[in-house]
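User: My notes are a mess, but here's the protein and pyridoxal-5'-phosphate's SMILES. Can you give me a structure?
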Amino acid sequence: MIMEHFSDKLLALAEEAEESVKDIFAKIDSVVFKNSARVLDAFRSNRVDATCFQGTTGYGYSDKGREVLGKVFAEIFGGEDGAAGASFVSGTHAITCGLFGALRRGDTLISAVGAPYDTLMKVILDENHNGTLASYGIGYREVPLTAELKPDKDALRTACREVKTGAVLIQRSRGYSVRDSLSVSEIGELIAIVKETNPALNVLVDNCYGEFVELSEPGFVGADLVMGSLIKNPGGGLAPMGGYLVGKTELVEAGCERLTVPGIGREAGASLETLRSVYQGIFIAPHVTAQALKTAIFCAAMMEKLGYGTLPSSRAERHDITQMISFGDPRKLTRFCEGIQAASPVDSYVTPVPWDMPGYDSPVIMAAGTFIQGASIELSCDAPMREPYAAYLQGGITYESGKFGIMMAISRFLDN
Ligand SMILES: *Cc1c(COP(=O)(O)O)cnc(C)c1O
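Assistant: No problem, the inputs look usable. Here's the predicted complex:
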C-alpha cells in the first residue's frame, strides 16, 4: 500500500508544508474561478453543442467541431482567430507551424529571452537539415539574458532596430534553463518594446506550461500569435494529443498552411474521434492547471524543508506550472525520479533510466506514468543528466495524486 511508504515524520512534514502555503492555495482557487468563467463564456458565446463533437473523416471539409474549437481557443487566449486540435502532432509542431507561417526567406527570427526550448533549436538553427528555418534562409538572432538572468530590454530594442523583417519569439516558461518564467505583464512589456521599435515585427509567444496560471494570457497583451501544446495545461489531461495557434487571422492561416499545405490550410484535416476529448480538456483545463500548480508548490515547500534549492521557491509568485529542484548529484536525482514513477497510476513498476531523447542534446531521465504518452500536465519529472542535476517537475491532474508522487519521491531519496 502506498501509505506504508510514508513514515510519520514524512506525513508530519507534509502537513507542515501544506500549512506554510495555505494562503497561496486559496489565491490559486480564486484564479481558477475566474479563468473557468472565461472558458465557460467561450463555450457559450460560440454555441458549442453536441454536433461539435461528431468529427469528420477523409479530407475533413466542413468540420464544424474543428472550426468552433478554433474560435473557442481564440476567445480563451485572446486572439482574433485560432486553430486547435489533434492535427498538430505536439507543441513543438504547432510552434514550428507558427514560425514558418510568420517567416520567409531573408527574414530573421529574434529570440527575445535567451535560447528557446531545446526541441525548437533544431527547427530553427540546423542549416544542414532539410526543412529547418536555417535551410530556408531564415536568420536567427538571440538576445541573451542579463547577468541577473532577466530579459535584456536594451539589447532587445537594439536587435529589433537592426533586424528589418521577421518575427520575435518570446518563451513564457523557462524550459530547461534557470531563468524565471515570464509573467504575462512582463511579456506585455517586451511586446511593447518590439512594437515601438519596429512595428513590422510580429511577436510570437511560446505559451507552453503557462496557460491558466494567471488571470491573463499573452494574447490579451498584444501577442500576434500564441502557440502551445495540448498535452500540457490546455489539454486538461484529456486531450489525446495536439497543439494550438491563436492570434491574428493571417498568422493562424499561414501556420495552418504549413500544417497542411499552401492553398488548403485549415479547410481540411479530419478530426476523426478526437474532438470531444479536446473540448472536455479545455473545459476542465483551468481546474487541472491549478491541481498541477498546487502539486509544484507542495513539492517546493517539502524540498525547502529538507534543505534543497528550488526554483521558483514555494512562496514565489508563479507564471507557469514547472518546478525545478536542484540535487547537485546524479544519484539523488535518479532516486527522486524513480519515486515519481513508482507512485504513478500507469507504469508504476518500471524504472526510469536516462536516454537520448530526440531533440535534446544530453541524455534525459524522464519519470512519467501517464495516461497520455509524455503528457506533462500529468505528474512527470524530467532531467537532463548534466550539471546542476536539477529535476524539472510538472503536472498532477489531481492534487492528491501529485502529493502521493512527491511524497514517494522524497521517501525514495531519503532512504538512499
Ligand atoms: C513542452 C514545451 C514545448 C514543446 O511542446 P511539446 O508538446 O512537448 O512538443 C515548447 N516550449 C516549451 C517552453 C515547452 O515547455
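The longest helix spans residues 275-305.
User: Great, I'll file this with my notes.
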